[in-house]
């Protein structure tokens, strides 16, 4: 059976959540006998070597177009190519390609499984026009796809209430255990184990990066910020805090052992995401045994449950950081056990893949 995955920057993951999803789901489906192809953009060479036996197909993107137009062109080209390749099921990461769904046949649209992600239009970086387009693409995805997938129950409730259409809950998975307690990453950034905070996120306003920087600075504690800073917001923050000795901008790190080294040696893990959905970076922090302080919203509480502390404002954030900093070993161990139990019960990649296999088989009327 031929499965296509579109809507990401490709595999292996060097960007974010959808790319981590595409990498993990494609490799695992391939090992179960599915013929999986990940479609991803290219600007130079259209031949892409397979990754872990997963085929990769390069979709031409014209480098001289503005980035927004590159994305539009990439989405349309991906769908057009898929129409020729004729896969059995198309897993679409995000709903931005749905602007073009109405122009394709119903037979083609009946293959579309759209992972709606969080509520993209709520992200603070978007202006009025972008929010309108995102709301429109969300509505078109709901109307023209075969199945909507929600990665959290909160998003599932929103989709079913908003669009009166059945949706399926399938979360993301967590990466377990790879990486030594210290593989040299702490030395690279001149860090003392258990004497720094950690944040792993895309450097965007809705992830409350600056709120964390200010809180750790006021408490005179080091904070390591992991995430690509080559964004408008990233450029602002790196310039604004260039002389602040308490913040280290480590850039994007995609080597799992290095990330886990930073996670396992941090005193506090900060998760400020507010835009919704089950966030892979939070799951990975839980799997690594981090002691977590998270923004208090329904998405984070659904994922983390009683495995961390929460904050709604700056005062609560600083109080939570202080509390975690003063945890003894037993308190830290208790939090880690709660996270480990929750992840293994709901958020392993084997659970996620099983749910996608069931969905794929139900759509194609084949037995598991």
Terminal Cα span: 12 Å
CATH fold node name of the largest domain: Rossmann fold
Computed structural class: alpha/beta
Number of domains: 2
Description:
The chain is of the alpha/beta class. The chain folds into two domains: 2-173 and 348-364, Glycogen Phosphorylase B (Rossmann fold, 3-Layer(aba) Sandwich), CATH 3.40.50.2000; 185-346, Rossmann fold (3-Layer(aba) Sandwich), CATH 3.40.50.2000. The protein has 14 helices and 13 strands. The protein has helices at 17-31, 67-85, 106-109, 128-144, 153-163, 185-188, 209-218, 232-240, 256-265, 280-287, 298-304, 314-325, 329-346, 349-364, and strands at 2-6, 35-42, 55-60, 89-93, 112-115, 147-150, 167-169, 196-200, 222-226, 247-251, 268-271, 292-295, 308-311. The strands form two sheets. A seven-stranded parallel sheet has the order 3-2-1-4-5-6-7, sandwiched between helices. Helix 7 crosses helix 12 (314-325). The chain is globular, with a radius of gyration of 21 Å. The model has no long low-confidence stretch (mean pLDDT 91).
Descriptors:
368 residues, alpha/beta, 6-stranded parallel beta sheet, Rossmann fold, globular, single chain, 7-stranded parallel beta sheet, 2 domains
Summarize the structure.
The protein is α/β, with parallel strands linked by helices.
């Amino acid at each position: 059976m031929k499965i296509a995955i579109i809507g990401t920057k490709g595999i292996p993951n060097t960007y974010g959540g959808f790319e981590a999803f595409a990498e993990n789901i494609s490799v695992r489906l391939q090992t179960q006998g599915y013929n999986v192809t990940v479609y991803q953009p290219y600007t130079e060479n259209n031949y892409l070597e397979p990754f872990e036996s997963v085929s990769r197909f390069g979709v031409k993107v014209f480098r001289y177009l503005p980035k927004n137009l590159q994305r539009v062109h990439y989405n349309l080209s991906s769908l057009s190519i898929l129409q020729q390749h004729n896969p059995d099921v198309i897993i679409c990461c995000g709903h931005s390609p749905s602007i073009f769904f109405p122009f394709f046949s119903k037979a083609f649209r009946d293959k579309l499984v759209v992972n709606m992600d969080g509520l993209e239009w709520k992200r603070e970086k978007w202006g009025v026009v972008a929010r309108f387009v995102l709301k429109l693409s969300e509505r078109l995805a709901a109307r023209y796809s075969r199945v909507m997938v929600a990665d959290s129950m909160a998003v599932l409730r929103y989709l079913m209430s908003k669009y009166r259409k059945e949706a399926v809950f399938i979360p993301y998975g967590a990466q377990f255990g790879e990486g030594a307690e210290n593989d040299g990453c702490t030395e690279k950034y001149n860090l003392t184990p258990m004497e720094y905070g950690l944040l792993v996120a895309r450097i965007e306003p809705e992830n409350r990066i600056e709120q964390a920087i200010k809180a750790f600075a006021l408490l005179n504690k080091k904070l390591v910020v992991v995430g690509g800073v080559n964004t408008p917001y990233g450029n602002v923050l790196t310039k604004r805090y260039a002389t602040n000795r308490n913040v280290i901008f480590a850039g994007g790190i995609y080597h799992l052992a290095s990330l886990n080294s930073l996670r396992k040696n941090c005193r506090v893990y900060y998760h400020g995401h507010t835009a919704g959905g089950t966030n892979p970076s939070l799951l990975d922090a839980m799997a690594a045994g981090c002691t977590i302080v998270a923004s208090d919203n329904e998405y984070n509480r659904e994922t983390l449950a009683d495995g961390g502390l929460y904050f709604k404002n700056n005062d609560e954030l600083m109080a939570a950081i202080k509390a975690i900093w003063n945890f003894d070993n037993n308190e830290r161990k208790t939090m880690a056990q709660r996270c480990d139990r929750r992840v293994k019960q709901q958020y392993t990649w084997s659970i996620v893949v099983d749910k996608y296999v069931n969905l794929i088989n139900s759509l194609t009327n084949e037995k598991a």
